[in-house]
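User: Hi! I have a protein structure encoded as tokens and I'd like to know what sequence might fold into it. I'm fairly new to this, so please keep things simple.
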């Protein structure tokens, strides 16, 4: 079915804006994150309950987003990077115009 859809989209000039299943190269950032999350969180723990899984995953998410430096952000944490964007007047006016 997906081949038929892809052919139709190609013939009509319709761009497909999502990553098709089995096509990880369509969105390398997401696939990179999934690999990191799987290796550092899911594969590193054995969850006995869903509640435990939620707690461990939330702790990993907070550490990943708030205290871990990211190479793509110039070795800054996402929280630091977002704070710097908020302090930038040029970006604040662009964001306001988009809303």
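Assistant: Happy to help. Inverse folding works backwards from shape to sequence: for each of the 99 positions I chose a residue that suits the local structure. Here it is:
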């Amino acid at each position: 079915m997906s081949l038929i859809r892809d052919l139709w989209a190609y013939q009509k000039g319709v761009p497909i804006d999502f990553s098709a299943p089995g096509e990880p190269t369509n969105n390398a950032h997401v696939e990179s994150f999934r690999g990191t999350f799987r290796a550092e969180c899911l594969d590193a723990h054995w969850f006995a309950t869903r509640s435990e899984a939620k707690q461990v995953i939330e702790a990993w998410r907070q550490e990943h987003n708030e205290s871990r430096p990211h190479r793509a952000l110039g070795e800054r944490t996402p929280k630091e990077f977002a704070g710097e964007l908020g302090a930038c007047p040029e970006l604040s006016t662009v964001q306001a115009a988009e809303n």
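A useful reference point when you look it over: The chain is about 65% helix and 0% strand. Feel free to ask if any position seems puzzling.
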